[in-house]
Amino acid sequence: MRNDNASYQDGAFFQRDRAWHPPAFTPEYKTSVLRSPQKALLSLGNTISEMTGPVFGHDMLGPLDNDLIRNYATTGDPIGPRIIVYGRVLDENARPVPGALVEFWQANAGGRYRHKKETYLAAIDPNFGGCGRTITDEEGRYWFRTIKPGAYPWPNGVNDWRPAHIHFSVFGHAFAQRLITQMYFEGDPMIWQCPIVMSIPSREAVETLVAALDRAASLPMDTLAYKFDIVLRGSRATMFENRKEGN
Amino acid sequence: MVQKLGRLKESPSQTAGPYVHIGTNPNFIGIHGLYAADLGSETVPEAVRGERIVVTGRVFDGGGNILKDALIEIWQADADGLYPGRGEHRGAADPAFTGWARQPVDGVTGDFRFETIKPGSAPYFDGRPMAPHITFWIVARGINIGLHTRLYFGDEEEANATDPVLTRIEHRGRVPTLIAARSDDSGQPTYTFDIHLQGDKETVFFDI
Ligand SMILES: [Fe+2]
């Protein structure tokens, strides 16, 4: 993939393990049937177009952007179990990814999204918007406060339900690392009945999307904590690096 | 036994789902008061150098239906071919230019529209010039992992003919799926880039 003169540390990302990710065509998830490319992807060694990526500064964040309990509330707190979700954004070399923009969105405690296309009977919560964002610190850490989302039904099978989940969008340091995924909650039996979850080929891979309940990090009489680390693609550059990636 | 490499696995992708706008474009769907503007919807500032262009198109599924719920991100070099942001070590890009934008397709027509500048040429990893291009990343309900592709410019025939990526495409009949035709009819240079997720006209998507 590279010419002989290229430095070993030229920053190319490890090849994405396509067998670890869900394939494009997963007929149990019906919408994928007509939206899945059928021809082979063009394999392309990283070029400057993929090894670069946009920068988002902390100054774009509002003070409540990582507080879904307060960022839309007008008449009181939203209904539902109060939780903190925290973790780190790492790369495949287990190095922290500082300055990573993390966006998240979710249904309310009843499983209802604030979206015009949503038709589930559960009530809208007037005090819950359902989205937030943050940027990782120098150690790659992030956290936000929210309410635990409910499970919800969706039109796929006659009676399919999504397990409780939070959607995540993550920007690393390069466009090659761009990722959207979902976080699930420890102990939820519905994880293993969901066609979207089961689009992931291995149980081992699914388990990396299940956040761990962390009683030690929970606030007494206040908020339960869940830990959710996110791993982005690693590169040969960060393998050999001593300085922190924060440039 | 051998030592462990100790690597982590990339978090597996999951679909952006039908409600992706709540997280990325809340104002677009009427959730106001959280963010002043949807990230990536800002117009390119006056100070940015380069030819102003419009990039527009639609996303089609394998049945020829237009997607009304897709989300598209673009990433590109500045007018000199330098990338803003991280990872560019050849020089400083135009400081007024972010290089990145994001738009949901229109909920009724399915059209997307980016007002940007035409990028310059950047080098392939062996130093050969790549033709000017814009990276596209497409997510939506039913797309399990984000799709990467590139828009190349129809009026760059010479550069496209020697582009190291386009020339690697074995099935030459598929090359036109990456080339956006230019029109100046509206007074503003407009490139139309339709994306076909599946079928005879399937766009070339990249594993990068
Ligand atoms: Fe969801």
Polypeptide structure, described:
The complex is a heterodimer of chains A (247) and B (208). Chain A is mainly β and 247 residues long. Chain A has a single domain, classed as Sandwich (Protocatechuate 3,4-Dioxygenase, subunit A). Helices cover 7% and strands 24% of the residues of chain A. Chain A has helices at 32-35, 48-51, 203-207, 236-239, and strands at 42-43, 82-91, 101-105, 131-135, 141-147, 152-154, 160-162, 165-170, 179-185, 210-213, 224-227, 230-232. Chain A is globular, with a radius of gyration of 19 Å. Chain B has a single domain, classed as Aromatic compound dioxygenase (Protocatechuate 3,4-Dioxygenase, subunit A). Chain B has an eight-stranded mixed beta sheet with strand order 4-3-6-7-8-9-1-5, with no helix packed on it. A two-stranded parallel sheet of chain B has the order 2-10. The radius of gyration of chain B is 18 Å and the shape is globular. The mean pLDDT of chain B is 97. Chains A and B meet through helix 1, strand 1, helix 2, strand 3 and strand 4 of A and helix 1, strand 6, strand 7 and strand 11 of B. Strand 1 (42-43) of chain A pairs parallel with strand 11 (206-207) of chain B. The structure holds fe (ii) ion. The site of fe (ii) ion (FE2) has 3 residues of chain A, from strand 8. Fe (ii) ion (FE2) binds at residues 162, 165, 167 of chain A.
